[in-house]
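Here is a typical sample entry:
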Amino acid sequence: MSNDNLDNRIEQERPTLTADEKAAMLRAIEAKVVAPTLSPYSVFLYLQTKTMTGVLVALVLIVGTTGTVAASNDAKPGDLLFPIERATERVQLAFAGEAREAELRAQFSAERLAELREIIEEETESTEVETTASSSASTSASVTVRESGEERIARAITAVLDSLEGYEDADARVEVLTKLQTDIDHVKIAGRSDSTVNVKTEDGARVQIKDDRIEVRDDGFRLRIDGDGEVRLRVGDDSDDDSRGRGSDDDDDSDDDSEDEFRSSNSLQFEAEADVFFDTTIVEIEINDRKSTFETTADTRSEVIDEIVSRYDVDRAAVDAVLDFEIEDRNSRSDDSDDDEWEGEDEWEDEDDHHSGRGSDDDDEWEDNDDFDDDSDDRDEDEGVAVKKFEVRVEGSTAEVRVEYGNKKLEYDTVYTTKAALIAEVALRTGLTSAELGSTLDLEID
């Protein structure tokens, strides 16, 4: 018998199972196998496995972002992460209530001042070591920094000034500026006798920082804080500079020229009064001793200010600061618009009359170091002019002001109710200094 036949015979004799027999045998085998006990935590483990990847990704993002924000808290003006810190602060301000916003602004200003002090200290340490190695000069009371340090300090000063944007409390703003003046008063630049620093804020204000004062110029006002804490404010329109004569002071080399520029060319003497009658509104304007009168249908303070701004091209803030707005319970009369009835005719001191023909340098030269020389000459002119009375009574959102100085009297109502704003406004109207007014102010709040 061949092998092929044998294989065929074996294949034929092999037992075969039907489909039903195979199924029955499989069930019998499965019945013999013990099924594992299901863990009560199996569902949790299953879900944890599915979500673990997403959780890990979120955790990495949160930890990474938190670390960046935390690191930015240590950043100073000019550092790479400082914009992140500023952005974080803006978010906090956006979600803060009115009271909390004031607290945050004060906190951020304090942080900017602290950062400025740290930068001055850092630059001072490196500069002092470098100077000691190359010079045997005696130690000076002032702090000398390198030019690279000057740039960092200028950035820090700008950050402090930017933090004041949005301040509602004028007193708090002046307090921060005074602290800033104190911090930078002793800073000198290596190899330079002039330590003036010029910076611009984010909103375009121009700031000049000198050894003995800070000067801030913005549209419509000019603020000066002297080293002794005296604050001077001028409200006006710088565009008026170009309309003044130039050259009449070429032969005058007196030391008070630059102060004259501050008092005449950079402050627009401006006064406005609006009387609202049943039938019309009469507005009287005085700009640098030039008076004019017009009638309008505007019957609210805001509308009158808009009308004045459109007619005379002056800054709105300047108009708002000096406008005497009154509502009369009658129709107008022919004599209501007579210039002779101008109530504020003698409320202004003619402190700049002797400068009326004198021009000013272009505003682009605002960084001139002599812009604000000592005002002793001008004060000599005012000798004998003492503040006899400065009384303010605040009722709600308005204040009634009474001032007697020299042989003049001033009475008017204003919307300003804070001490700093009232002193600044009266100083603007009278030409008196804030120190004189502050020492005599009798403030009554009902």
Q: What stands out?
A: The first helix runs from residue 3 to 13. Confidence is low (pLDDT under 50) at residues 127-140, 237-267, 338-384. The first strand starts at residue 143 and ends at 145. Residues 399 and 417 are 6 Å apart (CA to CA).
